[in-house]
Prior knowledge:
Strand order of the largest sheet of chain C: 6-7-8-3-9-10
Radius of gyration of chain A: 19 Å
Structural class of chain C: alpha/beta
Mean pLDDT of chain A: 82
Oligomer: heterotrimer
Largest sheet of chain A: none
Number of strands of chain A: 0
Shape of chain C: elongated
Bound molecules: adenosine-5'-diphosphate, magnesium ion
Largest sheet of chain C: 6 strands, mixed
Low-confidence stretches of chain A: none
Number of strands of chain C: 14
Structural class of chain A: mainly alpha
Distance between the termini of chain C: 40 Å
Distance between the termini of chain A: 39 Å
Helix content of chain C: 25-40%
Number of domains of chain A: 1
Order of helices and strands of chain A: HHHHHHHHHH
Number of helices of chain A: 10
Radius of gyration of chain C: 23 Å
Shape of chain A: globular
Helix content of chain A: over 70%
Largest interface: A-B, 34 and 36 residues
Amino acid sequence: MITRAKVRQGARVIVIGGAISYRALFTWTAPAMFVSSLFVVPVLQLLFFTHLGRQLGVADDRFFVIGGAVLSAGFPCVFGGTMAVANERAYGTLGAVLLTPGGRVALWAGRMVPYVLNGLIVAVFTLVTGVLILRVRIAPADLLMIVPTLVTAAASCSALGLALGAIGLMARDVFMVSNLAMTVLLLVSGADVPRSALPGWMRAVGEVTPVTHAVVAARAVAGGAPLADALPALAGEAAIAVVLATAAVVLLRWFEHGSRRRGALDAH
Amino acid sequence: MRGDLRRVLRLTVVGVRHHVLCMSTSPMILVFTLVTPLAYATLAFYLFRAADRPGTPAQVAVGAGLMGMWESVVSRAGGAVQTQRWLGTLETLVMAPMPLAVSLAHITLAAAIVGTYSMGATLAWGMLVFGMAPAFTDPALFVLAVAGCVVSLGMIGMLLASTLVLLRNANAVANTLDYPIYLLSGVLVPITVLPGWMQPISAVLPTTWAARAVHLAAGGGGPGEVLVPMGIGLALSLGCLLPAVRMIAWVERRSRTAATLALT
Amino acid sequence: MWAVEAIGLSRVYASGAGWFRTRGARITAVRDVSFQVPEGELFGLLGPNGAGKTTTMRMLTTLLLPTAGTARVLGHDVARDPVPVRRVIGAVSGGDRGLYDRLSALDNLRYFAELYGVEPRVQRARIGELLELVGLTGRARDRVEGYSRGMRQRLHVARALLHRPKVLFLDEPTAGLDPLAARDLRQTVARLVASGTTVLLTTHYMAEADQLCDRIAVISDGVVCALGTPAALKDQVKERDVLEVEVYGAAAEHIARIEELAGVRGTSVEEREHLQVLAVHTDRGAGLLGPVVAALDGLRLGKVATREPSLEDAYLAILQESGRESAAEVRA
Ligand SMILES: Nc1ncnc2c1ncn2[C@@H]1O[C@H](COP(=O)(O)OP(=O)(O)O)[C@@H](O)[C@H]1O
Ligand SMILES: [Mg+2]
């Protein structure tokens, strides 16, 4: 039976545990690097692609501003999710974390919440800055409607990060992997290139990776379509988030069992 | 005099080779110098295709290669002093009778040369995957333009190395220098739609001219068309080099005062 | 002309020093240090950790500017003319960093040979000769990252000798080496001195200084508190006896009681596995065995002996006395 106390306990694990691990594990919290990687670089990238798009006459500014903003949530989320797992191991705290009696889902969901929030803040900042600098016309109400798509993208990217982190427990050099993941997202998500121009296999990959559907949804609402129109795309993004998060939890549990058997929880 | 010149040449070759070897044995080189530029090349190719833009698709490969070269210079030359400090070799370099600027010049040139791995990769990628061969009439001219670009970037790298070392958050600043140069210098494609106030900046950046020379050479331009922008690029870079050398001497003296040569 | 000459050399560190911040605590690491080293001598700076040895070496090797005083190497001012100084010196700064780990010993040496302007024609032979000297010939093509601490140290020595420096500075060259490697290195240093190189080395090992150095400067808290040949330093404690007592479980109060005895000049305690070796310096012929044993108040004793003072005793005495002086300074 789920009691209130249990719920409260679960919530505490999620919020407090998450916040503490965020501070301890997000090594970017060195302020200058944090600001530069998360807030300055995405805006500059957005400006570059927007002007490139203008020069080539590929699409209007709004296309690139929305794409760049949604994609900007990916960076902190993928890296953050990876670090949430990888750093626990690097600091030798993974054993202690995996051995706590609490539910794993609450535990790792807690790890993700701060990164999702972080990704959301970054994406909103990128969006607003892009809109202001490039004077893109989007109705304020429509801007507000974009927020749910950004949240969903942040969630699916964090789940991807977590899954990569779990893989990283078995492979070496997780950051190479997450770097490559971001490169793949840039290529296949259609954030900075119309997906219709991409070859079939890249489009197919994009169907099942984070960001793609969120970008579609965000562009729809930014164009004034009612949120209902964007719901299918949004649901697609959410489904990807759920699948990846499940995969991550399963991988982590598998790892936990395997290493308990081998007695090598903190082996590097 | 002839002997002196030969010694300087030898010193440069040995020094640059040394640092190219150091950089080439790092595993990070794979991701940042090869994979990322290839991703840019691919993305740019489909962007060009979406634009249904006629003209030279090889521009994409060359442009992505130039992006990789710039990234290499920003990250490796910009952090040159800090890297040597981490390795503990900064003291060894300072203690040699050669001015520190000479050792740093080896490093920044090496950074630009390692950047040409990107150019090689994107050109090969373009030809193999997209069947886009550069239209050069004269491969030697293209190689010359790339070499000019390497020297230009090496000199700009000196300015980066000497200024970034003064900033406490050099990494964070270096991190932001990629896209502005891609944009302002028309590294991938000349951007004529830049806002008016940006255009003068673009015109005085040596990277603009070096990139233009490489693009023109790849597109089949003649020696006259290529050598002029290359020369302008080199001259502007020389303008970066002179203050950089003075600044490095100042930095060295300052480190001897503040005891920061050995600090991590 | 002296090979090395320091005149009133001082260095103050502004701690927490960033590029433009000079406020904060100031540490005087080296205070008014003066000495002269003639050519061909092996001169040792001996002192405990934090005494200011490395700081002095860094100033002499042009890596650090003195905050007061001057120093010259073969007549060149280390602060004003660093380049001529750098041409004639070689330096090993201790520690195992400072090499290009991803490259081979050979690549490292080739690069520095070029930076030191070694004639191209003689480079190959010179590098081969040095690899032979430091015993790395067989491993010259291996990457440095796989080297042991001792091999790195030897490579550093080879690097420092590339341009046949007239003066060689070695900062704690044997620190962290196993005894065998340390002995090899000392032999190498001795050979270099025999062939005419002036060597300045720092160490906190008494025996090393005693065995190697022609003259020693004992440095403590940034001040040179004694300077002379090992024999002369021993003479400073000639007027003493050393009473050595093995004791089980002596506490601070016991030591304090002994130090209060008339005729006791100082004490030192060396912790062995389960006993302590107490060395009590007394005036010559003071005959304090009885009072000392009484002061130990019924503790279990091991061997008890009286002996002539060694250089180590001299060193400890010098440090203790300078400590007392600086303590007096603080009180004054
Ligand atoms: N870069 C520095 N900044 C501040 N203080 C320093 C620095 N280097 C050394 N010191 C201080 O100066 C004193 C002497 O240090 P050092 O010369 O390294 O001694 P030694 O080599 O004899 O062990 C020590 O108290 C040390 O903490
Ligand atoms: Mg020291």
